[in-house]
## 1
Amino acid sequence: MKLPALIRTALGGGLARGWRLGSRSPAGAVALAGGIGLIALLLVHAQGVPIAPPAATNALPRMPVVPRPPAQQPPVGLAADAYLDKTPPRETKGLDLVKLGWTYNCMECHKLFPAKWHYDRPMNEHKDLKLDHGNNRFCLNCHHPKNRNAFVDYDGAEIAQADVVQLCAKCHGPTYRDWQAGVHGRQNGHWDAKKGDKTKLRCIQCHDPHAPNFQAMKPQPALVYPPRAAHQPKAAGAAQH
Amino acid sequence: MNEIPANQQSPRTLEQVYRPLNRRTFLKGGAATVAGMAGLVAALKPLLALEKGDLTLDDLLQKHYRELKPDELQRILKSLADKCEQERGVRPNLRDLKPLDGVEFGYALNLTRCVGCRRCAHACLKENNQSRDRWDDIEMSYIRVLEMNKGAINVETSNHYYAPETVPQKDKYYLPVQCHQCRQSPCTKVCPVQATWQEKDGVVVVDYNWCIGCRYCMAACPYDARRFNYKKPTIEKAAINPNQGYLSNRLRPKGVVEKCTFCLHRTREGKYPACLEVCPTGARVFGNLLDPDSEINYILNNKRVYVLKEEVGTLPRFYYFFDK
């Protein structure tokens, strides 16, 4: 039952960092992991990617680390404004999985797993997820327990992936109101609706839903301090005498 | 009292009376004549530029922008475009966009959201063809991002040279400052030749062909919003934005003042300004103050709005606001 998924994982996911282990018992997991590692070794080696040998009886084999290209956001704004750097603060991750041949059908795997509020072992699949979203400590705070392709509403109804704004609006009412008014979030294109359209980014195009605070970013180069000046620039807040 | 009789004059020589040309007066007069001629030549020197082709007769005899007839303006636009193509190798799409009816621009900036990444200041360069020796030289950018200490809005302890590894820094917030397009604009009042004025849509513009470079406006501006071309602008051919407006981002000559125009070559075509387009956090809001449903009016009606240096009475069209 798991075999097709495993082979597909070894083929496509061997390049990515995801491995699907269905087994519960540690011994079974190790055995299964060894097998996966062997398949992956054969398959991945054939593609010329160096891989660490599957090792140690009491540890999972080290996964090959493949550098991931930064994902491109879909273009925003006008084509004529391509010379302006409109990179949003978030690098998307989902899109490069799609590039690697994945689909967004979460239920391919999740039909195997029962929906639980809390798993007492670390997740194997979504290891890169760091949940830092206030009180939302559980997947099922937002994801639908029966259908992982959807989000969950107050009453247990499904919110489609495309309507993710409605999900965020459940808690972030004032922000949602501002977003609707066009005052929160990025807008690009035309301010004048008579002259043309504007593109409006949705919540998760800027915010990582699992850790919605913006990551600190590198500032663009500073104003050059005049070389003719005698003193170094004073730091903001330096004592004024 | 010993009065001197009226007919009794102090003795004077004949030479003193008739002042004939002697060596001293000859030299004096000669020097004065030479100086006068030199002054005349200096005054007519621009005509030499005319001879060399640096200046056309149209430039020399051009009227003030607001007195130009449409055909005269078209001729000037064409000659400026020709000059740009000849000097820089780029044929600009140079237009003169008039203010839209029923539009008054307003700008708001969310101080809760701004992280101080300076993308706006750099986008301003890309859009407005400012002079720069290197790609990252933002000396002439119309936007200065000030790093401020949390707890007060005190520009005296701010720093616009900040360059940490990452922003935002703890205990700091960031205040980008650009032209506030004031309703009571001190810069336009001090201009001795009326080379800068407020347009109908609120944008304060400079006619670079009329500006004499006295920089009174720079001294009058409380927001340090104006920049001066101390030298002939240097800009790489590849960096030139060909989408240009006569009153905004066309290539400037040496010795004139320039400033933010809310990207009027964009905004008068209905587009957002360049600084708003690139803001990664969406801290910038732009719109029509006369449209009650506009985004800018939503800010003014619903948010805590702050006006920088309100006490100087300039009544800006640029507002800062807070989310929390």
## 2
Amino acid sequence: MKKRIDILFSLFIFLMLLSSCKKEKHLVKIEGTRIEINESISGNSDIESFIKPYRENVRKNLDSVLAYAPETYSKRDGKLNTAIGNLMADIVLEQANPIFRSRTENTINMVLLNYGGIRASIPKGNVTARTAYQIMPFENSIVVVEMKGNHIKKLIEYLQKSQQAHPISGLKLTVDANFDIAKALINNKEIKDEETYFVATNDYLYDGGSEMYFFKQGGKSYTLNYKIRNAMIDYFKKVDTIAPIVDDRFTQIN
Amino acid sequence: MKRREFVKQTAASTALVSLGGLGLSSFSGKTKKITILHTNDVHSHIDPFGPEEGRNANKGGVARRAAVIEKIRQENSNTLLLDAGDIFQGTPYFNFYGGELEFKLMSMLKYDVATIGNHDFDNGIEGLLAQLPHAKFKFVSANYDFTKTVMDTFLKPYEILIKDGIKIGIFGLGIQLEGLVLKELYKETKYLNPIEVAQDMSRILKKEEKCDLVICLSHLGYDYKNEPNQVGDLSLAKATEDIDLIIGGHTHTFLKKPTIVKNRKDKNVLVNQVGCYGLYLGRIDFYFDSQKNKTSSGHTIIV
């Protein structure tokens, strides 16, 4: 049986103040403790019943089945690209493009998100809105940036340098043993310096998050007001079974 | 002089700790006790963690915290409940209700004062303002200048509370938002140098308002060893004076005991932080002796 209040520390400070006749109260002792909130404490029932309807509503919304995952997908299942990262980037491309096209008559060419932004795995079994909340707990929205080919090179340098499976879509990178570029393609074509590409990312990264400063050096940007998480939920509603794989979009040859 | 030496020697001896219970009777005159309870970085963690959630398993939960606080208040009605920011963001409760439930529950728990963390801007400054009517407690922020935002006039730099005749001044400090929060969320909120602001605040609270206790609610973070230019609670404590207690947040630092820091006048400041997600409740008791004729000699710390 754990102690109800786990007092880990007790500190006493005795103060004897120099001033002898001031009217102030004298601080004589300070005592500090840390109380662990654990299962030995029975919760306040008024608070419990106040939370209950909120909890039930959240659960109802989060736990309805949207799709099915035949496997568990973790961001640790690939070196330079992962099934879950590929899925996220592909979802952004697929879900954001109709909106972007209807607003600008242009097409998103590629997507770059960040590896650190994948906050959970997709467990085998039912995929729910909760899954999307766990993978993407943040409120980040999709931003499309107009970038010239020579700016895309900065983006590629970033990927060469970080050597991490940052989610990408539309871009195909092959590096050699030294992480020098062997091949870099957008939509299976060579990247041209003066050509304009539309790159989708999220507002956090566009703002320089994860040191992706190259986005701000690009051209015009378009805020779609479409959250990454909502794009995922909309996609899960659309499909019956998700089947992401580790593929050849970012690979290393020796 | 002799007495001072005696106190020093006693301080060096750890035996006194184990002898422990120097009860209230040890002090002459009527002793007043102020209990400060505090949380930080609760991040919308309303329900306890489930049994499968690693080191946090079965810990936390607002209803349990409420029960603990209620019991402490029954023992000492002169209790203050404070939060050092990042109330928002971390569970779907925030995504669904935008912070409404967090503020309503904190009001039910009778929080007195809180400060603003970077994640409290996650639904924009408008999103924070929209939830303020649900908060029956006060927010303090001294180094965010909200003059050019919708938040203007809704927040005060400090609050003064009086418990059992003891005057307690509480001011708030927040972290630099640039690079941490999207500009479109915090808008024209201006970040002011926390050390300069803290010096100003503690002077007002201690010297002008004559508070018996000055508390800083900080969302600056505990310590930045590798970034000397980043102000944390430890460097704040060292660089200022007249602050008695810094209750921190942001870095999710789990302190088993408060850190004692010497301020620029060589006086002790307590810095505390209780990790995150409502896994712990911090408690600091201040005992005051109202006797006027007291002789003295520096302070003694026995840990």
